[in-house]
Design a protein that fits this description.
CATH architecture of the largest domain: 3-Layer(aba) Sandwich
Radius of gyration: 20 Å
Distance between the termini: 53 Å
Helix content: 40-55%
Strand content: 5-15%
Number of helices: 13
Oligomer: single chain
CATH topology of the largest domain: Aspartate Aminotransferase, domain 2
Strand order of the largest sheet: 2-8-7-6-5-3-4
CATH superfamily of the largest domain: Type I PLP-dependent aspartate aminotransferase-like (Major domain)
Bound molecules: pyridoxal-5'-phosphate
Length: 373
């Protein structure tokens, strides 16, 4: 009998889904990882035009259409002062596929992958799928990842360490000094730094810098996406960039697993990247206002929460039983342990809902908090 592969048997369906299933239909969902804004019209139009003209009918080149890869490179030049060759960009099916091909291309069976704990659920799962060994590391009090912790965790078997800023599930933003350190560590230890920057444009305080800006070797690979910045999670369009030799290896996985990102989505992404950016600024302003409402609410309840400086998540400390109690009252939040052992005692709260809904949810969280205290 054909048995299931060991790699896949080590992975389970995300704990987040279980929480959604436990909640009633009318529940307020503070568990979602997607912005509650429409995809900008000009992005939609980009896809519509490509569909009408027939341009979206066929495979594109494996890396994606040249004009999209140029648009991505232009964004790095304009926003981050980083020189990216459009030839060294692969358009992928979301940031998810980009993370997958990066790990497949760089991790051998038994090699270790270091990532933040709590951290985005895919790092652990994709490490297993690549045959690697997850090495989750705890975070600082403010929920950023300390470069010193990463450096201490590196062994001869380490293939990759993952940096994610702004971060899911914490909303933490690494300082430019930390990013410089991550680059130094990648250079010094000759280990790949995989920098997941899908939230790079959703920053309220501090500054997003990529380790790519600081590295002296080609030991940094960057993952980006339209998903969060342009509220395009359904379009499945992300990318990965790195040195030519690394891109060539990742392309081998992409070519056989995916062939190319969906053509219509590539055209939508190009339009999103090259068109007006005001929808992004408006969305970021709205997230910041909601974050402030949420933090005020936590303070009134008496819950401690490091100030999230980006993305649209907060990770307060919560007492035992809080998550179940809140879900029973009709508010979906995700237990911190869904993101790793060190997430225990926290909950991830996504504020991709309007202020009124957020206030209603805070009232219910207050009731839940009192009920178990
Ligand atoms: C940190 C992080 N990286 C990558 C992704 C994947 O994004 P995409 O929807 O582009 O695949 C997500 C999605 O939630 C995320 O939170």
């Amino acid at each position: 009998m054909t048995d299931f592969s060991h790699r896949v048997e080590q992975v389970s369906i995300s704990g987040i889904r279980e929480v959604f299933e436990a909640a009633g239909e009318d529940a307020i969902n503070l568990g979602l990882g997607q912005p509650d804004f429409p995809t900008p019209d000009h992005a939609r139009e980009g896809a519509i035009e490509a569909i009408r003209s027939g341009e979206a009918d066929a495979y594109t080149t494996n890396k994606g259409i040249e004009s999209l890869r140029e648009a991505i490179a232009d964004r790095y030049a304009r926003d981050s002062d980083i020189d990216v060759d459009p030839g060294d960009v692969i358009a992928t099916a979301g940031g998810s596929e980009a993370l997958h091909i990066a790990l497949e291309a760089h991790v051998d069976p038994g090699e270790e992958v270091i990532f933040p704990d709590p951290g985005f659920v895919s790092y652990d799962a994709l490490t297993h799928i690549a045959g690697g060994e997850p090495n989750p590391v705890p975070l600082r009090e403010d929920l950023t990842m300390d470069p010193a912790t990463v450096e201490a965790a590196i062994t001869d078997d380490t293939a990759v360490f993952v940096v994610n800023s702004p971060a899911n599930p914490t909303g933490a933003v690494q300082s430019p000094e930390d990013m410089r350190e991550f680059a130094r560590i990648a250079d010094r230890h000759d280990v790949l730094c995989l920098s997941d920057e899908v939230y790079e444009h959703i920053v309220f305080e501090g500054e997003h810098r990529s380790p790519l800006a600081f590295a002296e070797t080609d030991n940094v690979v960057v993952v980006g996406a339209c998903s969060k910045t342009y509220s395009m999670t359904g379009w499945r369009l992300g990318w990965v960039t790195g040195s030519t030799r690394r891109v060539e290896r990742m392309l081998r996985v992409h070519q056989y697993g995916q062939a190319c990102a969906t053509a219509a989505a590539q055209h939508a992404a190009e339009a999103a990247l090259t068109g007006p950016q005001d929808p992004v600024a408006e969305m970021v302003d709205a997230f910041e206002r909601r974050r402030d409402v949420l933090l005020d609410g936590f303070a009134d309840i008496g819950m401690d929460c490091p100030t999230p400086k980006g993305a649209f998540y907060a990770m307060p400390e919560v007492p035992e039983g809080f998550v179940d109690e809140v879900i029973d009252r009709g508010v979906v939040v995700v237990p911190g342990e869904a993101f790793g052992e060190h997430g225990r005692g926290h909950a991830r709260i996504s504020y991709a809902v309007d202020v009124e809904t957020l206030k209603e949810a805070l009232g219910l969280m207050d009731d839940a908090y009192r009920a178990i205290r």
